[in-house]
Amino acid sequence: MSSYKVGVIGGDGIGPDVLVEALKVVDAAGVTLDTTEYELGAVRYLRTGEVLPDSVLEELRGQDAILLGAVGAAANSTEVPPGTLERGLLLKLRFELDLYINLRPFVGVPGSLAPDCDFIVIRENTEGTYAGEGGFLRRGTPMEVATQGSVNTRHGVERCVRYAYDLAVARPRQHLTLVHKINVLTFSGDLWNRSFHEVGEEYPTITKDYNHVDATCIFLVEQPTRYDVIVTDNLFGDIITDLAGAIAGGIGYAASANLNPARTGPSMFEPVHGAAHDIEGQNKANPAAAIRSAALMLDFLGEEDAATAVNAAVNDFINSAPDPTLSTTEVGDAIAERL
Ligand code: NAD
Ligand code: IPM
Ligand code: MN
Known about the structure:
There is one protein chain. By secondary structure, the chain is of the alpha/beta class. It is about 40% helix and about 20% strand. The chain contains eleven helices and twelve strands. The strands form two sheets. It has a ten-stranded mixed beta sheet with strand order 2-1-3-12-11-4-5-10-8-9, sandwiched between helices. A two-stranded antiparallel ribbon has the order 6-7. Helix 5 packs across helix 6 (about 190-200). The two termini are about 15 Å apart. About 45% of the residues are buried. It binds nicotinamide-adenine-dinucleotide, 3-isopropylmalic acid and manganese (II) ion. 3-isopropylmalic acid binds near residues 72, 86, 91 and 274.
């Protein structure tokens, strides 16, 4: 079996702790990883002022994949301005490595609000309001202006929409929903809507649907089984995937893959959740999201059997009605033991 070069970025808060469990489970699945740990996040920033040095970015480009825990300072931090790590590290990696698909699968956990749901959100991952367009005029004066534009290119939207169709075609339900706000965002929404229908002509077997993002929040709670594959823009995808995590059993189970489908460089795998400073250092974060993210990585690296085994172990653990007070380490051990 081959060994894969994996860059490991534990990051902040619960990030390093959940990654320990993910790596433990990959090892138990019999896959050898040649890991390099990168100390990036608040600690390094406070020590050196560096967020993502160019030399580290270049090293990361040479990896087969990247596993990331979480980055971000606590909301009350006065030493790390908001966005320093999110934009300077996480979004920089997504943009620089052209990880234009953010794939987030949701399968309902028994006892959750949506035990029967089984859908995947394809979130555009390089554009929209995340692109960084905008700025200030007269900052700090009573006349100040702040703008934050949404960047939507035909190229960026189309490649995302096409990826979603390709995914939907490979699933039994053959159903794809565009989520946007075309009733108000009449420029970006129009481009998304036209791309959705134009590309859709190449996929005659797919049933197409459209929901406004606000109504999507109702349907995710009241009728989540209506979804098979959702395609949406960067910010809407961010928001609805936290909601999807909550209805499907909790954010501690929600995994994600930041994909460069062209494989011109490494893809990056991380839980949907963040640094969770409110439970940091307490050994009570659920590592399942990180473990499932590692399974997405194994699958993308071509280790499909190991990925299937890891997911089966996670599901078996979930179905065993585990004690909710189990620690991060105990959950990792219980899943690893099943392999
Ligand atoms: P969060 O996802 O960190 O936490 C939201 C809530 O979910 C908290 O109550 C937390 O305790 C809970 N939670 C999260 N993960 C959990 C887990 N594995 N097990 C059990 N409970 C869990 O979101 P936030 O509080 O808005 O953000 C905290 C920091 O993380 C911020 O700096 C933010 O920018 C950053 N963040 C980073 C990422 C990322 O690295 N991908 C994602 C989201 C937020
Ligand atoms: C996520 C996070 C990130 C996002 C932040 C930390 C930049 O919330 O991965 O969902 O908004 O994409
Ligand atoms: Mn988010």
